[in-house]
Design goal:
Largest sheet: 8 strands, parallel
Helix content: 40-55%
Structural class: alpha/beta
Distance between the termini: 31 Å
Strand content: 5-15%
């Protein structure tokens, strides 16, 4: 199946975490186990080298970008999942990372514009065109609270005209800005070529349930590329299937489920402290399941925020139906082989 067709079918794409040992060195065994988990859970893709993987993997002190990308490719070889590499930085860095992703065999890149906060819209578009000349691109609207920048309708209306753009991840955490992206795609006439993915961790299921209407144009967000889906992935796959099987039915139970997912995300992602503890929060869930040995990040100061553990305990107790612990325990030995 062609890349555009795969994306348009609607996929669960977890943002892949980084497995470290107690010395904050790469734990290759558990890094491989995470990829095996996502494949076994039914994920339609993986995104590696993104925020959840920790941007510090690019730091020469660690030199982990290529090893982590390569491990994910090795463990997903022989599957038909979509493989997306995160690309960030200014021109030279973005080009080098895009070339590396292409050489390794990734299908597309998730293009962050966070390093270009002072660039004009035309400069952002030129940057995007250069990357898209190298490899298919998934655009990325990253919320300003975690380093993104405001990107108006005018930017997205021109961005969707770039030939090699295949998808857009909307992670604005803002309904007005989310609509800007959807409307730009609707107005372009390219909705059959470019697929929308939610990265709005505060609104995951509602995004998937919504049919956006602009005059006679109707557009849906087909799937998600989410850090939240790095945990409890088997359940996330079932949630997306539920929406796809009943695209025009929104029973009250699904709206309640949407609220519960958002509440769980608030605890895991540490919304109360500006998302400071989001990566350790993800790690804590995976640690509890046994997939990770600990919560360690490359930055020793990146830890759970005060009170975050209590919140994680609360949502784990309140929402057992969101979790996939039994599935993980059944397969853990095989993934950690």
């Amino acid at each position: 199946m062609h890349l555009r067709e795969k994306l348009r079918s609607g996929l669960v794409i977890p943002a892949h975490p980084l497995a470290l040992n107690g010395n904050r060195k790469l734990d290759e065994r558990r890094q491989r186990a995470l990829t095996r988990y996502y494949v076994a859970a039914g994920a339609g893709g993986i995104a590696v080298g993104v925020h959840t993987t920790q941007f510090a993997i690019r730091d020469p002190r660690f030199g982990l970008l290529e090893p982590v990308l390569s491990l994910a490719l090795e463990e997903s070889r022989g599957t038909d999942i979509v493989k997306i590499a995160g690309v960030c930085g200014k021109r030279s860095q973005a080009v080098a990372e895009s070339q590396l992703a292409k050489e390794l065999g990734f299908d597309a890149v998730l293009l962050s514009l966070a390093a270009l906060n002072d660039a004009t819209i035309q400069e952002l578009l030129e940057h995007s065109r250069i990357v898209a000349s190298l490899i298919p691109v998934m655009g990325f609207y990253l919320q300003p609270a975690v380093g993104g920048r405001f990107l108006p309708y005018e930017f997205w209306r021109q961005f969707v005209e770039i030939e090699n753009v295949v998808a857009i991840k909307i992670a604005a955490f803002n309904r007005y800005q989310t609509i800007d992206v959807v409307r730009a795609l609707a107005d372009s006439g390219r909705a059959q070529e470019i697929t929308l993915y939610t990265g709005n961790d505060d609104n995951i299921l509602n995004d998937l349930l919504t049919s956006f209407a602009f005059g006679n144009q109707r557009i849906r967000i087909a799937g998600g590329l989410l850090g939240h889906w790095a945990v409890w992935t088997k359940t996330a796959v079932s949630h997306l299937a539920l929406v796809k099987n009943n695209p025009d039915a929104i029973p009250t139970e699904q709206l309640t489920l949407a609220q519960q997912i958002t509440d769980a995300n608030a605890a895991i992602f540490d919304s109360a402290h500006g998302f400071h503890g989001c990566i350790p929060g993800i790690h804590e869930i995976l640690r509890r399941q046994g997939l990770l040995e600990g919560r360690w990040c490359l930055d020793p100061n990146e830890e759970l925020s005060p009170g975050q553990m209590d919140e994680i305990e609360r949502v784990c107790h309140s929402y057992p139906h969101l979790q996939d612990d039994a599935f993980v325990q059944e397969n853990m030995d095989d993934w950690l082989r």
